[in-house]
Amino acid sequence: MPFRLQHAGATDVGLQRNQNEDALLLEPERRAFVICDGMGGHASGAVASQLAVATVAEALHGESNGKNGAEEMEPLVRAILAANQAVFTRSQVDPQCHGMGTTVVGARFEGEKVHVCHIGDSRIYLLRDGELSQITRDHSLINLYADHPEMVGKLGPAHSNIIVRAVGLHEYVEVEHKVVDVEDGDVYLLCSDGLVDMADDWMVREMLTAGESLEETAATLIRAANTHGGADNISVILVRAEKAQQG
Predict the structure, then answer these.
(1) Domain ranges of the chain
(2) Alpha helices in 17-74 (DSSP H)
(3) Rounded distance, CA 74 to CA 81, Å?
(4) pLDDT averaged over the chain?
């Protein structure tokens, strides 16, 4: 493989929540990494996120029933569609889980490309040559307004942070999928909104460029989010791509 991947992941309940409803999946053998941020009452957000990552893992292992489309579909997209079906079905048959859902953000590395897949407002950032850029775009009401200005005013500003797409809310959901060229030294940050709501992008960049190990950087990111309020669960996955040595 042209790129060797180093990775680290961490999650924390934060300072204001009683339960961690985030879930992480690290599959280095399949070069895939996923974060889900659950939502729903009676702790069903945790059910949604854990069920989603378990289903994605099963699908990536090739153990799903394969009912989500043509074989040429990107495997991570197919896995997320399977997760959507699993979460939706559980929400229909279990009254305590009615209306539950989860965001999902994932990256699967293949050759010199990375497949970036997401639903909701969990994000992927790319640090390249010291510059930080967001490579996902939140499926949020505020971005929907930006795309459709004629809708502004139909809901008040208090609704602007609502997400408009999530895993498990409907029987089918569209997975946003893009392919990004990987370069030597790239660092990819997957995170739930518990990080970015507490730490500005410039702060994240400073922590990513501080020269610490990926494990230390993950801990630093979570500590910063808690220092600035820790209003939500915080999850991060860091992946560094390095050119494999020839010979």
Answers:
(1) 3-241
(2) 44-60
(3) 11
(4) 90
What is the enclosing helix (H) or strand (E) of 5?
Answer: strand 3-12
Pairing relation of β-strands 22-27 and 187-191? unpaired
Q: Which of 1, 3, 2 lies closest to 242 in space, CA to CA? A: 3
| CATH of segment(s) 3-241 | 3.60.40.10
3-class secondary structure, 217: helix
CA distances from 224 to 70, 133, 173, 218 (A): 43, 19, 33, 10
Output DSSP code: residue 80: H
Long-range contacts of 87-91 (CB under 8 A, 24+ apart): 87/48, 87/51, 87/52, 87/55, 87/167, 87/168, 88/168, 88/169, 88/170, 88/171, 90/47, 90/48, 90/51, 90/168, 91/44, 91/48, 91/168
Show Cβ contacts of residue 110 under 8 Å, excluding neighbours closer than 6 positions: 31
pLDDT per residue as tens digits for the range 154-193: 555 555 568 889 999 999 999 999 999 999 999 999 999 9
Is residue 76 within 8 A of residue 32, CB to CB? The reply is yes
